[in-house]
Design a protein that fits this description.
Length: 659
């Protein structure tokens, strides 16, 4: 990928979704392999990934495979073998978290630093670039100014080995810095760093202050709204980002189609404005629907910290999809609800999903079994799938939202996009006969010949138009005609069957030329001698889970290396989550927001708080200088006993490797 190219990077739960991501405009797709992919139930066979690779490469789109869990020593060899299998399948890059992978015999495949590597500083980003990572996924919590600072630290954009900056622009948000959350492992033994998060952040909590007073009851105070950077793309580009990542390897086909198309449209508008920038792959998309992010599951949207800290980033009332307002209840019956829609042109469909807030502000879902229009002024009678007695507080005047539109869903179940590569066709008359050359927008050509002298046209006035029309029929091929040039010695007639065969042969030659021109992304070479890591001491937060990872950091000058949290060496209370989100700030209780709340010598001080969910109790501690929150707790004894730790012993001290 060149520094002036913009890459739209889409997720894929499986190969079929990945193929549709490409068809809807993705310049690259990231997908999990058969293991080690940080999404426990989103694995794919190498054979399926090879099928996706073949389709993507036709458009010069790239396929990245996630190999981004931390690994035990006994998993390094299986991971190495898998990396070679993926390389042989044509995969373009591996997305990694565990630095131990850089110390084993990997194929010459490009490596990208996962968001799990927690890249928040210019020093960390520069180190990973100098260690041989070609693309680095920045922390979601960064501001535009912080992104720009990282971009500047990487050096000139056209310098050899210069890393590409990748940034999440859409999808679900983890409240913790990626790679810095251990609550799931501490409470259940399911490690987020190993792809099996139990999502404690989506649970409701009671929040108590340091004096035991309840400041929030049954609120999802660790649940974030969904990320949406649609309005910030130009500024993110100016800050240095070149790869725009959509979250969602668990998401369904409709989500990937819709959100990929949405950002394809937005990025293409920017490319029209800025000719110095270009797409990272080939072809243009035509969509048979209007992309709309609000139609997919979302917890409402936030642009998070890109434009600075804001209060309204949390989905505290519910982690579910609240949908969009559609109308209000006018009456209820024994098996139906009457709704007056806000817009009388609104159509309610069988199978639609509706929802409303009960008196406790809990979101209640209602699936429609049958919908009937009562009149032409927007009054509808809907018959829920479930009994009416299950819908608490559903009464006259309650606002109702729609969070699933079946008409929309069914539309995306059909073919919803076409992606075509522009091509110029030239028909030449030579001494040997006719020659058709098709040249695509990337400069590749395919050629076919029809020997023998062509016939004179019986109707010269229509001959040229018919030839152009027939040659332009590229049908279901990858290509769309941009222009047809005829270099003939006079009006000619060519039978349709011969023209069709000539065109098919030229298209096959063009596809073969494109395939032959495909080249692998280059593997970046690490700087020699090895650069020094920004810190000389690593705690459990560095996620070092095997000897090769320990050797990597030692080689780069780290003197003290602690084992990963999953090694069970941290038995006391520690930070189980570190987050830029602050519960105090979101509840308007931050000392910086309140006049006169200061600690020793005038420094801002925030007293701890407590989170309670059933028997689970966690402490919130606030580090006000960097404006961060730590969720503190300890690993359960049942997890210590039931979940095996790494079968290796880690040593807390390690000499600096000699240059």
């Amino acid at each position: 990928m060149l520094p002036h190219q913009l890459e739209l990077l889409a997720p894929a739960r499986d190969a079929d979704i990945g193929i549709e991501a490409v068809n809807h405009g993705a310049d690259a797709v990231y997908i999990g392999g058969p293991g080690f992919g940080a999404r426990a139930t989103a694995d794919n066979s190498v054979q399926d990934i090879a099928r996706l690779v073949k389709h993507a490469h036709r458009y010069n789109s790239r396929i990245f495979v996630t190999l981004n869990t931390i690994l035990r020593d006994d998993e390094l060899e299986p991971a190495r073998k898998l990396a070679w299998q993926l390389y042989d399948a044509g995969v373009d890059a591996l997305i990694v978290q565990d630095m131990g992978l850089l110390e084993i015999d990997l194929p010459p495949i490009q490596l990208h630093a996962s968001t799990q590597t927690d890249i928040r500083t210019p020093e960390k980003a520069r180190f990973l670039q100098d260690a041989g990572l070609s693309q680095i996924v920045l922390a979601r919590e960064l501001t535009l100014q912080q992104i720009a600072a990282i971009d500047n630290a990487l050096g000139p954009k056209d310098a050899p080995g210069r890393a590409i900056l990748e940034f999440f622009v859409h999808g679900a948000l983890c409240v913790a810095y990626s790679g810095q959350c251990y609550i799931s492992h501490a409470h259940t033994g399911r490690s987020a760093n190993r792809g099996d998060c139990s999502q404690a952040c989506r649970l409701p909590y009671e929040v108590k202050d340091s004096q035991g007073r309840i400041v929030a009851h049954d609120k999802h105070v660790l649940s974030m709204k969904d990320n949406n950077q649609s309005d910030n793309l130009r500024e993110i580009i100016d800050a240095g980002v070149r790869s725009f990542k959509i979250e969602g390897r668990y998401k369904d086909m409709a989500y990937v189609k819709n959100i990929t198309a949405h950002y394809r449209v937005l990025l293409d508008e920017i490319l029209e404005e800025r000719p110095e920038l270009a797409r990272a792959s080939s072809g243009e998309c035509t969509f048979h629907f209007q992309p709309d992010p609000d139609q997919n599951f979302n917890r409402e949207f936030t642009d998070y910290f890109v434009q600075g800290r804001k209060e309204d980033i949390g989905a505290f009332d519910t982690p579910k999809n609240p949908g969009r307002p559609i109308g209000y209840v006018t009456a209820t019956g024994p098996n139906f609800v009457e709704l007056q829609t806000d817009d009388q042109d609104t159509v309610i469909h069988n199978g639609d999903g509706l929802c409303y807030l009960d008196l406790q502000k809990e979101l209640v879902g209602l699936q429609i079994n049958r919908a009937e229009a009562v009149n032409k002024k927007g009054l509808w009678r809907v018959f829920p799938k479930d009994p009416m007695e299950g819908f608490k507080d559903l009464r006259k005047g309650v606002q109702v939202n729609r969070n699933r539109d079946m008409d929309w869903v069914r539309g995306l179940e059909k073919k919803s996009a076409e992606r075509r590569i522009g091509a110029w066709l030239t028909l030449d008359e030579t001494a040997e006969g006719l020659s058709l050359t098709i040249t695509d927008e990337d400069g590749h050509s395919g050629r076919a010949t029809l020997p023998g002298a062509p016939q004179d046209a019986k109707d010269p006035s229509q001959a040229e138009n018919k030839l152009r029309e027939n040659l332009s029929r590229l049908g279901d091929t990858l290509f769309q005609p941009l222009d047809v040039t005829l270099n003939l010695n006079g009006p000619r007639f060519v039978p349709a069957s011969q023209l069709n065969a000539l065109r098919r042969e030229a298209v096959e030659g063009l596809e073969a030329a494109r395939a032959a021109a495909w080249t692998r992304l280059p593997r970046a070479k690490p700087v020699e001698p090895p650069v020094v890591y920004p810190e000389d001491t690593l705690t459990y937060l560095a996620n070092v889970f095997n000897h090769k990872a320990r050797d990597f950091y030692a080689k780069h000058g780290v003197k003290v290396i602690a084992a990963a949290y999953e090694s069970h060496e941290e038995e006391g209370e520690v930070s189980l989550m570190i987050t830029k989100h602050c519960v105090r700030y979101s509840l308007s209780l931050c000392p910086k927001q309140a006049k006169g709340v200061t600690g020793v010598q005038g420094t801002v001080k925030a007293e701890p708080m407590q989170l309670i969910n059933g028997k689970e109790k966690l402490t919130l501690r606030f580090d006000c200088k960097p404006c961060e929150m730590h969720v503190v707790g300890k690993i359960k004894r049942s997890v210590m006993n039931a979940v095996p730790a790494s079968p290796v012993t880690f040593y807390r001290t390690r000499p600096v490797a000699k240059a």
